[in-house]
Amino acid sequence: MGFAERWKAARNPLVIVGMGALAREDGAAVLALARSLATVRDDWNGFAVLHTAAARVGALDLGLVPGVGGRDVAGILTGAQGKEIEAVFLLAADGFDMSKLGKAFVIYQGHHGDAGAHRADVILPGAAYTEKPGTYVNTEGRVQLGFRVAYPPGEAREDWAILRALSERLGKTLPYDTLDQVRARLIAVNRSFAALDQQSAGAWGEFGRSGAVSDAPFEAAIKNFYMTDPISRASRTMAECIASRQQIMAAAE
């Protein structure tokens, strides 16, 4: 029996789409085709997306996407290069070519001095995940809590506190003075944030966009699996492991 026949006969087929397939120019068309293959019922969710950014699932749960007239990352970079956008705020955003920000004034909030910090005109030092209590959403959509094991060094602060202080300086004060108030707001936006370690079924609807699909082969979205975030990229131990692995791979060839 061929693949198509097996797929058609399967009771619980599962489509898993990686970001390498969706980040292409034809990504919306690929997503629409993948959706057309999926089987979703009350007792079975046969569609999943594997994201490459740790905070993306939680951000999508909160609806943090470009609004009407807003720009995605590509649009922001185009605007910065064309001088339409004069200032860019990077919230721990390091996963793109910083040269594409052109001459824009860059404010970077994050930790470990990654690519965004090196490009920034102003740095707002945030706390690492070990230095703050946090709310995280894993790739399954389960909300989890993290706890502080050490206080952040120097002038570093928890991210929500930095944004709260910045909002006051800008004359648009956010109504949150404690972490509990921030978490209450998360729950008000999406009730899934109240259900710790549980999965909440999302609404199944139309997504993607019909269109032509390139015949170019799919490529891995991650070039170096062992250094995918600011912490691992700043790790001397990980750097030594990568060097050792490269030597082993070269010897095997």
Beta strands, count: 9
- Structural class label: alpha/beta
**Helical proportion?**
25-40%
Our measurement of the CA-to-CA distance between the termini, rounded to an integer number of angstroms, reads 37 Å
Query: Order of strands across the biggest sheet?
Result: 5-6-7
Overall morphology: globular
Strand content: 5-15%
Structure description:
The chain is built from ten helices and nine strands. The chain is of the alpha/beta class. It has a three-stranded parallel β-sheet. Strands 1-4 form a two-stranded parallel ribbon. 34% of the residues lie in helices and 14% in strands. It has a domain at 223-253.
What features would you highlight for this structure?
alpha/beta, 34% helix, three-stranded parallel sheet, 9 strands, two-stranded parallel ribbon, 253 residues, globular, 10 helices
Topology:
Layout: H1 3-9, E1 15-18, H2 19-22, H3 27-37, E2 40-41, E3 44-45, E4 47-50, H4 56-61, H5 73-81, E5 87-91, E6 105-110, H6 115-119, E7 122-125, E8 134-137, E9 143-146, H7 159-169, H8 179-189, H9 230-233, H10 236-252
Parallel strand pairs: 1-4, 5-6, 6-7
Antiparallel strand pairs: 2-3, 8-9
Can you summarize this structure?
With 253 residues, the protein is of the alpha/beta class.
